[in-house]
Amino acid sequence: MKFVLVTTGATVTFRPLIKLSLSLEFVNHLIDLNFTKLIIQFGNSSNSKDFYLKELETLHNSLSKDFGKNEFHYKEEFSSNDESKITILYNLPIKIGNFIVEGISFDKDLSLNYSSKSSLIISHGGTGSILDSLRLNKKLIVLNNQELADSHQLDIINEFEKKELLIYCKDNYNNKELIKCINKALSNNNGLKQLIPPRGKIIQDIILDCI
Fold this sequence. Notes:
It is found in: Endoplasmic reticulum. This is UDP-N-acetylglucosamine transferase subunit ALG13. The longest helix has 20 residues, at 48-67. With 211 residues, this protein is an alpha/beta fold. Helix content is 39%, strand content 18%. It has helices spanning 15-21, 24-32, 48-67, 110-113, 127-135, 152-162, 175-186, 200-209, and strands spanning 3-7, 37-41, 75-78, 84-91, 98-104, 120-123, 140-142, 167-168. Strands 3-4-5-2-1-6-7-8 form an eight-stranded mixed sheet, sandwiched between helices. It has a single domain, classed as Glycogen Phosphorylase B (Rossmann fold).
């Protein structure tokens, strides 16, 4: 199954990224690119699930106009530690058949269970999330959560971009910009380099330069 993973962080809800990822234009573009699944890690904050479901229902209503699916249903499952997993399945009459949107609040084994199996990762700018994706040699697009007080996050993103390890999507509110970044990441001449071990000193230098 060819899928995109979107990570928004464990605690603070990155609303613009969730909103972009659940827009009709974005989902239609993934379908056009033959993706069959979109997984969004939406965060553990008190209102993150409500916001995710609100945007998911908006997407559903938009899809219903085109595909005639009227009722909004989702299946919610809970792991042993009460991490929420919300899944909605769209049976779309298109060439690839079914398209799945899956939401998870958080998974402590996100890298193993999701990142390692994805074809493309779209991430918030947390250093840990960036490094986890790069160590798996995944195509990575990063957006900076401008609502965070961490002033070093953007500096770190820029340094990784300068080293051609990721694609930085600079506009958190523009579908066309994100779609452009996706097309670049998936192209054969995306210019991205792999983080080949051992690279510890390079990572340390990037972080130290931003402090």
